[in-house]
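Consider the tokenized backbone below.
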């Protein structure tokens, strides 16, 4: 047995359906193989026949579409690219008596879609022997039958076709009969007995003859039947059908009981010899279930489900027999007409379930196949998808459609699509079916993070605590997972030559910006930084935003006196002519404040003066003017202690002293000319004096001693103004309560002066003794340790007096 099938011919041609994407080719491969091949036998090498490499087949997801064959019978061996037998084929079971028996397949290749027709023709082998429908054929022949009379013997059946089916009949040698072989309209061969020598019932009442039917196959097969002949006395007629062949058409799905046709045969004989009965001869079981035949009336009725798609033509052979067993045959051809009883079926051949959102328009993402088992118009299928989706259905080869993308996809807008494909056939009424396919759109990092605001600005009070959060930025990225996970960073930059990272830092996950150090409004009032938001895609996308940081002022600088110049070691003394009139400008205090705004708005006030009525100071100008005309009786040495205060909350203040000499002649004040600035131990002296005084008031002096010691521990004693004019205590106002808070005098503090006399002898005049309020005062007049020391430094010299007052009062 030749195992390998032969490749008969192949037609290859290409169709370009859509110029852009599809290269669809359609060719037909036809193989011819004998039936009953072993599993695994090679039918043909499709890879070679299509001019493809064997391994390309699996890469292109080659597969067979069985076109309605319930069993595939052949399959593709992906390794070799061959078509091999997967199931033993019995031609007779598959195709019955049809001469040509072919299995049709579609070979589907993807990327690009190609569909090739494959036809496997199954050739008959002589695997069936002829056989007769019964073991014995009974004939009753009258002895009066004349020479040449023929008796129908019927047809032996052989399931094979062509030369493998019954080709000849032979009859065993006998004296009376010869055999005549005829050919049917459908090519079948049947035999008749021909009487060659009259029978004599008296001589021989019964005969048995062996009839052999043989086919022409290799090997040759045969079947036999015994013809039992009974010799009768009388003559007889054969039943004759009213038509040589009956042809009817029957719609499929007709109900059970529908009359197909009524056959009738008449017999010229009378009585029992003329009674004709009908029966099916040689009907396969499958068909026998579908039709019934009334033995007497010859009426054929439908008894089962007639399905055009299963069988479109039935041939029923009917035998009419008279009472004596003389019979004749007729054929009834029932043609089934198609009804639109099958909705189209949609099968998904391939589908990309996940489509990247940046997939180009026109990309093939799926292949579907629609089929309708019905005929002609009923088979014309029209397939649609909803218009509002970014997909398109492209008719391709025959019943195939490709699904291609149309227009842009955006996962951030639509994450998935359920697309219902509807297929409708052309029948009346049309039938339709639908199938929903699911596409999910997968993410591509196509959205950069976007900040919620165009730019950010924030206000931070100076002297902020390092590490506090000062503002936060937020950017959003609609992409999926890491493609949408945003991280923040600060662009490197400089503020006043210092890397920006030493001022602020950002939390990469939250976008919260922290200060790294304390800001100083006096150093810089604002700065800006660029914050970068970056997603974690690959490659990442980013955007940036500007953050403005404004540092708001706090009142952390006290006023600084520029004039009278504090750093000038010689004492500033203004000489005022005696003839000064009321309202004249005598001097001016000039001060500045490093803060800004209200915190730098200065006001001037005379807090102490030798003659309170004599001079005034402009509250905001700092101009010192005579309040009245100066008279001879006024003291020539005038001392003014001036407080300069800013408008902050709380306010800060500084004091200074202005010395005025009322004289027309500078020579009158020789002491001023070479006044040395002694770093004398005058404060030691003062403590001695304080100790002396404390002896007189025991309790008080003890406490003072303690405070004096404490003062010594505080650091280097400050020099006390020495040798200037003495200011009578009576000129001090009882209190000045406007000043408040840190570093200033409280109204409740009664203080006393211990200024030196003008004699430079460091003698202290005790104007009033310390009282207990002073000692217990809880307010520190000294600066808080945090405060810059410059204030003290600046106020050295002429401002010494006020500072000394402060020190004494701080001796709690
Ligand atoms: C599609 O169907 C699936 C379930 O089958 C559902 O989870 C999804 O939300 C549907 N999508 C749309 C866009 O309707
Ligand atoms: C992120 O985007 C890239 C392409 O830019 C893609 O390959 C990846 O699958 C995406 N990640 C997720 C989690 O979707
Ligand atoms: C910040 O973003 C703008 C566009 O928004 C871009 O032109 C600029 O180059 C970016 N700056 C940096 C430092 O990346």
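A designed sequence for it:
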């Amino acid at each position: 047995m030749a195992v390998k099938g032969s490749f008969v011919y192949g037609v290859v041609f290409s169709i370009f359906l859509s110029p852009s994407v599809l290269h669809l080719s359609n060719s037909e491969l036809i193989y011819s193989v004998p039936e009953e091949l072993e599993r695994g036998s090679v039918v043909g090498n499709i890879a070679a026949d299509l001019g493809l490499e064997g391994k390309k087949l699996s890469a292109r997801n080659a597969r067979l579409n069985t076109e309605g064959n319930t069993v595939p019978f052949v399959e593709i061996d992906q390794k070799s690219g061959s078509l091999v037998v997967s199931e033993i084929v019995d031609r007779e079971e598959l195709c019955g008596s049809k001469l040509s028996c072919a299995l049709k397949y579609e070979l589907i290749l993807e990327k690009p879609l190609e569909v090739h027709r494959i036809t496997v023709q199954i050739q008959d082998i002589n695997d069936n022997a002829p056989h007769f429908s019964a073991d014995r054929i009974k004939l009753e022949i009258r002895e009066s039958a004349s020479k040449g009379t023929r008796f129908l013997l019927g047809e032996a059946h052989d399931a094979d076709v062509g030369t493998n089916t019954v080709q000849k009949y032979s009859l065993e040698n006998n004296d009376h009969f010869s055999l005549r072989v005829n050919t049917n309209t459908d090519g079948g061969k049947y035999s008749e007995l021909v009487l060659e020598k009259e029978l004599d019932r008296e001589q021989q009442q019964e005969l048995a003859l062996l009839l052999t039917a043989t086919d022409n196959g290799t090997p040759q097969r045969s079947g036999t039947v015994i013809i039992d002949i009974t010799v009768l006395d009388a003559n007889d007629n054969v039943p004759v059908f009213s038509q040589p062949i009956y042809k009817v058409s029957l719609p499929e799905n007709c109900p059970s009981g529908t009359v197909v046709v009524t056959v009738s045969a008449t017999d010229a004989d009378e009585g029992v010899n003329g009674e004709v009965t009908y029966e099916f001869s040689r009907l396969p079981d499958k068909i026998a279930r579908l039709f019934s035949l009334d033995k007497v009336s010859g009426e054929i009725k439908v008894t089962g489900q007639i399905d055009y798609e299963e069988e479109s033509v039935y041939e029923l052979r009917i035998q009419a027999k008279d009472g004596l067993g003389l019979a004749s045959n007729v054929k009834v051809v029932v043609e089934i007409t198609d009804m639109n009883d099958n909705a189209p079926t949609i099968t998904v051949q391939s589908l990309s379930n996940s489509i990247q959102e940046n997939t180009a328009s026109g990309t093939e993402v799926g292949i579907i196949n629609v089929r309708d088992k019905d005929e002609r118009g009923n088979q014309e299928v029209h397939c649609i998808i909803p218009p509002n989706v970014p997909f398109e259905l492209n008719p391709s080869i025959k019943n195939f459609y490709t699904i291609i993308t149309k227009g842009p996809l955006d996962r951030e807008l639509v994450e998935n699509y359920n697309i219902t494909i509807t297929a409708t056939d052309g029948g009346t009424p049309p039938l339709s079916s639908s199938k929903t396919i699911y596409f999910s759109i997968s993410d591509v990092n196509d959205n950069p993070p976007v900040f919620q605001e165009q730019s950010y600005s924030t206000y931070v009070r100076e002297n902020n605590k390092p590490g506090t959060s000062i503002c936060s930025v937020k950017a959003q990225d609609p992409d999926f997972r890491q493609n949408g996970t945003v991280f923040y960073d600060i662009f490197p930059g400089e503020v006043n030559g210092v890397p920006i990272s030493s001022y602020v830092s950002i939390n990469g996950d939250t976008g919260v910006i922290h200060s790294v150090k304390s800001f100083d409004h006096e150093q810089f009032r604002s700065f800006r930084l660029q914050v970068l938001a970056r997603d974690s895609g690959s490659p990442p996308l980013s955007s940036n935003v500007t953050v403005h940081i404004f540092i708001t002022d706090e009142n952390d600088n006290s006023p600084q006196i520029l004039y009278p110049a504090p750093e000038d070691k010689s004492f500033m003394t203004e000489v005022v002519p005696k003839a000064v009139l009321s309202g004249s400008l005598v001097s001016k205090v000039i001060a500045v404040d490093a803060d800004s705004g209200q915190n730098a708005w200065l006001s001037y006030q005379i807090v102490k003066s030798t003659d309170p009525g004599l001079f005034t100071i402009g509250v905001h100008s700092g101009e010192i003017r005579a309040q009245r005309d100066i008279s001879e009786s006024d003291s020539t040495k005038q001392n003014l202690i001036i407080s300069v205060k800013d408008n902050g909350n709380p306010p800060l203040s500084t004091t200074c002293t202005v010395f005025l000499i009322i004289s027309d002649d500078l020579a009158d004040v020789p002491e001023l000319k070479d006044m040395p600035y002694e770093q004398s131990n005058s404060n030691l002296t003062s403590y001695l004096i304080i100790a002396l005084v404390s002896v007189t008031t025991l309790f008080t002096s003890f406490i003072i001693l303690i405070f004096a010691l404490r003062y010594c521990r505080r650091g280097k004693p400050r020099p006390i103004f020495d040798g200037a004019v003495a200011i009578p205590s009576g000129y001090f106002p009882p209190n000045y309560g406007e000043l408040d808070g840190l570093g200033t005098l409280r109204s409740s503090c009664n203080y006393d002066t211990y200024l030196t006399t003008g004699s430079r002898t460091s003698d202290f005049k005790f104007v009033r003794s310390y009282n207990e309020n002073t000692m217990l005062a809880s307010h520190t007049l000294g600066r808080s340790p945090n405060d810059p020391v410059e204030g003290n430094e600046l106020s050295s010299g002429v401002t010494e007096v006020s500072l000394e007052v402060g020190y004494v009062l701080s001796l709690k």
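The CA atoms of residues 781 and 808 lie 9 Å apart.
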